[in-house]
Amino acid sequence: MTTSVQHALEQLKVSGVRITPQRHAILSYLLESMEHPTADEIYRSLEPQFPSMSVATVYNNLKMFIEAGMVHELTYGDNSSRFDANITDHYHVICQQCGKIEDFSYPSLEAVEQQAARHTGFQISGHRMELYGTCAHCRGLNQQ
């Protein structure tokens, strides 16, 4: 078990959440895959391990992880939420052909928030940015 999974499980225990095998598996899958999966993808991946687990169980646990601040729900207009266990400040590049999402960081964008606050008088609480394009795989390139 990776340190981040152990840390996340400890956070849940401290907040009084019981750690079920399903919760452990869903959280581990999210933290280790970093693929921004849908709830259905998580369910399909874990179904062989947990044949009695339902899609509703996956959704309910994801909702609980979101409320605990451990997972972000990504909605990009394709009517299927994706889930991201990387809660650090980062952005996403989305393939318009296959839907693959990759993380990227660009710390200079924090300056945009500061500039917006100065120019508007708003207290900025955050921003969201996503870029769209075609991934290397869909373009037929051999790189990832």
Provide an overview of this structure.
This protein has 144 residues and is α+β, with helices and mostly antiparallel strands. Helix content is 40%, strand content 13%. The protein has five helices and five strands, in the order ααααββββαβ. The strands form two sheets. Strands 4-3-5 form a three-stranded mixed β-sheet, with no helix packed on it. Strands 1-2 form a two-stranded antiparallel sheet. A hairpin with a 7-residue loop joins strand 1 and strand 2. The radius of gyration is 17 Å and the shape is globular. The two termini are 26 Å apart.
CATH evolutionary superfamily of the largest domain: Winged helix-like DNA-binding domain superfamily/Winged helix DNA-binding domain
Mean pLDDT: 86
> How do the SSEs run, as a string of H and E?
HHHHEEEEHE
Radius of gyration: 17 Å
Shape: globular
Q: Remind me, CATH topology of the largest domain?
A: Arc Repressor Mutant, subunit A
Number of discrete helical segments: 5
CATH architecture of the largest domain: Orthogonal Bundle
End-to-end separation: 26 Å
Instruction: State the CATH class of the largest domain.
Output: Mainly Alpha
Number of strands: 5
Record the strand order, biggest sheet: 4-3-5
Quickly count the domains: 2
Q: Please summarize the sheet with the most strands.
A: 3 strands, mixed
Percent in strands: 5-15%
Chart the SSEs and their pairings.
Elements: H1 3-14, H2 21-33, H3 39-46, H4 55-67, E1 72-74, E2 82-84, E3 91-95, E4 101-104, H5 110-120, E5 130-133
Parallel strand pairs: 3-5
Antiparallel strand pairs: 1-2, 3-4
